[in-house]
Each structure stands twice: as C-alpha cells, then as structure tokens.
Amino acid sequence: MKIIFFLTTAIILIGQWMGLFASVSRSSTDFLFTASRTKNTAISLVAIDDVSLTTIGRWPWSRETQAKLLRVISEGKPKVIGYDIVVDDPTESRADAAFQMTVRDIRSVVLPAKDAHVTVDIDGDGVVRRFPCTGSFALSVAKRWNADVFCPADRLIVNYRFDPKSLPVFSASDVLSGKQIPTTPIVLVGITSPSLQDMRRTPLTHTLLPGVFIHINAIDTFVSGRTLVEASKMMYLLGTSLFLMSFAFVLWRLKYVWGLLLLIVWGMVPVVMAIVGYARGVRIDIWYMEVGLVVTYAAQLAAEYLSEWHKRRFVTQAFGKYLSPHIVNAIIAHPNRLTLGGETRRISVFFSDIRSFTTLSESMEPKALVALLNTFLSFATTRILDGDGTVDKYIGDAIVAFWNAPMDQVDHAVRTAKAAIAIRDGMDRFDRLAIGIGLHTGDALVGNVGSSNRLSYTAIGDTVNTASRLEGVTKQYGVPIACSQSFFDEVNRVSPGAVVFRKLDTVILKGKKLPLVIYELVGVTGLVDPVTQKKIDQYAKGLMLYERGTFHEAKEVLSHPILKGDMPARVIIDRCKAFLKHKPSSWNGVSELLSK
C-alpha cells in the first residue's frame, strides 16, 4: 500500500514540476474571483455596442467618427484614454490624418499596436487568466495614469473583479451625441457588440465577455495594487509533498468511512490556503494537492479492493463447485453485477429513420419490402462502420449508432458528421426511400446492459433521446440532417470549419424544457456549391432579423428568390406571418415544437 502511495505521489509531483494540466490547474483558483458589487469610480467604459451600431452604422466607423468620439471623451478631462481598437490599417488619407491629429492633440490617448500590444494568453479551456506584461496595452494605460505602476512578473495574473454590471458603461452613440460623457480618470473605449466577435471567457463568470473587460480588469489590477504573484515551484512541490504525506499517514490508520470523512476535511485545507494566499497577494496552486488527495485515497481503496478481490476469487474457486450458486453469490457479494452497467462517456449519437415507412410498407410485398430494408440497412451500417462507429441497435427501419465508445475518439463528432453526409449522399440509389438523421453530442451511460444471460452493449440517456427528437426535426424543417448546438460545438472544437452548417432555429423540443439551437448539417467544406452557400448566407440574415423580432423584415429577406422552395425559410416565413397578425406578448427568439 505504501509503495502505491509513493508511486502515485511521485507521478503527481512530476506532473506538477513539468506543468502538466496547466489550464486545469489555473482554473482551480477561479472561485477566488468574484464580481464587485460597487461601481468602479476610477475606470469607465465607452462601449461600441449594438445600440451604437444601429444608430451610427455598421463597423468599422470612419476615422473621422472615431476621432470625434475621442474629442468628446476628452471633454470629461480623463487622465488617460485607452483606445482598445487597432487602427493600424490605412483608410482614407484625410480621415486618417484627422484621427492622428486628434490623438496628438489630446495626448492622453493610448493606442494598441502603436503604443502597446493587446496579446493575451488563452488557456486550454478557453479562459484568459494572464498575459505578457512587457509592452502590454493595459500596462501602458496604467503607467500613463501613474508612472510608478509596475508588473511583478513576466506575466500578469489578472485579478478580475469587474464585469458589465460593476463598471460605469456608456454607449458610444450617447457619448457622440453628448448625452453622456464619462468623467472618470481612466476611460476605456472598446467593442462590446457580440456580433463583432471580440468575446473572451474569463474566470470571473466563465461566460463570454467582451475582450475589453480583460484589459479593464488588468488595468484595475495595476492601479489598485491588487497584483498577484505565484509561489515558487519548489515551495509548491514541498507543500504538496508534506500535504499528501500527512494525509496518507492518518489515512492508513482509519477505516473506509472515516477515510472518506478525512478526505473531505483534508480537502478543505488547500481551499483555505488559497483564500489566505489570495488575501496576501499570492496565488497558490491547489489543483495538484486536491488531485493528489483523491489519487491517494483512490490508491488506498484500490489496494483494499484488490485484497478483497483475491479473497472473493479464493471463495469462488474453493466453494463454487460445492455450494449452490445463490450461496456463493451471497458469500462474494454478487460479483455478477460487475458485468452489468457501464460508464458515463461523452458520445456523438446518430439516429436515422426512413420517412413514411409505414405508407411504403402498405404498397409493397413483404419480401420486396424486407429486401429493400435490408439493402438500405447494410448500406447505412457499412458507412457507419467505415467511420469507426458503433451500431447500437435497429428499431424497425431506424438506426441508432454512436461514436467515442468503446474506444476513445477525439474527433468523434467529425466522424459522425461525415458518416451522416455519406449516407445522405448515397440515398439516390434508393428511389423510394428518404431518410431523416438526427445528430447530438452529450453524456450517456455506455456499457453492457441486460441480464446475466444476455447482454447488449448500448448507450442510455437523454443524449440518445435528443438525437431521436432531432431526427423528428428534419421532417418539420424539410432537411435531411439536423443536429444540436453541442454537436456543432464539438465538431468545430476539434476541426474548425471542416464541415458546413446552417443554423436553423432555436427551439424547445417536444418533451424538453430548455431551448436548443438546431443546425442543418450541409456538407463537407470545399464540396458545398456556391449557390448553396448563398442560400445559407441569405437564410442567416433572415433568421437574425426573425430572432430580433423584426418579423416583417425577416419575411422579406427570407422571401428572396434564392430561397424559393427552401423548407426552413418557409417555416420561418409562416411564423412571421402569424406573428404579424398576432404579435407575441414576449419574444426571445425561441419556438416550442409541439410534435416529434
């Protein structure tokens, strides 16, 4: 048991020394960052938001308009204006000259690229927690406010505390019109409109925030003196070693139940250390301590389990031939249950169904129908197996398959998408058949399920049900393949842009409570013809207007000749007509589907 402990501890320490799982490690202290409940009085934001884009026009604005914005802001007499917008690319020479002259006249403006870079570090989980200090935009703004400001390390750990609710935010359109002028010492100008895609994840909320809030929090970290430093690597290693050794020393002397209680109590120690360290301006990495704690406890359980397993095996071998099965099972605590159940895995599920199969079956002889069905199932199964998928079951004419089990497949969603496209594109060989395919990615219980005499390797859970519901969506929207937001995200996480999607709608599926963004899987990138791509773009414009609640404009855009005969466009047009006659009392862009 002690050998196992020293081995697992050595692995934890090596991982800590090498910086493995750095993103996960850094996320372990995200709980320390909480949004301030009081407004910042030193920093304010002039936001280029959706209202500004609607009022002034689409981005980018002319340099003359941007220069005017800076002049109006300067009327509030800020000590420094941080202009978090890159203006390196030349436009009209007259407008560029006016902008540069404005910057020289005001003198308090800090521009990215010219004065400082806006580079940030994006961790593996997509969260921005730090960035290089040298020559950074945030440090340049802070130094313009106070020349004594400095960075304590090569990389600044951003001490987040401000989100849009805890910061004075002024719409750029209001500032340009003179309705509101910020008067704080530091004014940041940045893009907050989600449509311009300058969004980042921060440990403050783990939701997408405009990138300018990263610089705001970094500037606040500098000017407020709330900088954080890392404990040294040797201190980390020494602390982790002593922590795990003390835990193991006590654990070896306790029973199972008390060991679990000890795990909970000991697990709070690193959290308290992190809180105390944060209050003193030191970031303490607690992830390796917590993981080491769990691994040590798991090693203890594993050792005890192996010991019990050997005892059970001895009982089976010694008494299995002499005692009745139910007595042996009682002695060894029913080990047959180990063959049941499974594991929770993140999988991509494929659910297909032949449309109007009942009607088709009524018009064909049974033998011919079975032959046709077998030919189709063979064809579709081959495409699934070619993509290394697992065929779960056949439900009449329906096929259920999944990827990422039993073998790990990093690109499981991409494989699922390509198999679905291959089946759709091969349906022209079946004159009388048309199918709908639903694709969804999520967690499911995967494993051997059944009785002791008959087991089936299958997937169970809401993920499979959702894929089935999405197959039903194909009938309502007249598309061959429909998929979920999680499937869309998984494909683009692993292989961005490999597959072309069309966003169809945001709906609540029948039997569900939460809204779901649904997409049509169109095809492999590079194989989608230009006309189809134009249809996708035109539909996207109409859908955006529809989601905003501008139903008349949405109807006009979706009635474009290029979308003639397009079933999803017809669905949205019909809704727009209905909403124009009977305007909904509230509108959030979500429709509830009342049928499967």
Characterise the protein shown here.
With 596 residues, the protein is an alpha/beta fold. It folds into 3 domains: 200 residues, no CATH class; 183 residues, Alpha-Beta Plaits; 68 residues, no CATH class. It has 20 helices and 21 strands. Strands 13, 14, 15, 16, 17, 18, 19, 20 and 21 form a 9-stranded mixed β-sheet that branches. It has a 5-stranded parallel β-sheet with strand order 3-2-8-1-7, sandwiched between helices. Strands 4-5-6 form a 3-stranded antiparallel β-sheet, with no helix packed on it. α1 runs antiparallel to α11.
Question: What keywords describe this structure?
Answer:
single chain, Alpha-Beta Plaits, 46% helix
Q: What secondary-structure arrangement, pairings included, does this model have?
A:
Blueprint: H1 2-18, H2 22-27, E1 43-48, H3 50-56, H4 63-74, E2 80-83, H5 93-106, E3 109-110, E4 121-122, E5 128-132, H6 137-145, E6 155-157, E7 169-171, H7 172-176, E8 186-191, E9 199-201, E10 208-210, H8 212-223, E11 229-230, H9 233-251, H10 256-279, E12 282-283, H11 287-319, H12 325-331, E13 343-354, H13 357-362, H14 366-386, E14 390-395, E15 398-403, H15 412-425, E16 435-450, E17 455-460, H16 462-477, E18 481-484, H17 485-494, E19 499-508, E20 516-524, H18 530-548, H19 551-558, H20 567-581, E21 591-592
Parallel strand pairs: 1-7, 1-8, 2-3, 2-8, 11-12, 16-18, 19-21
Antiparallel strand pairs: 4-5, 5-6, 9-10, 13-15, 13-16, 14-15, 16-17, 18-20, 19-20
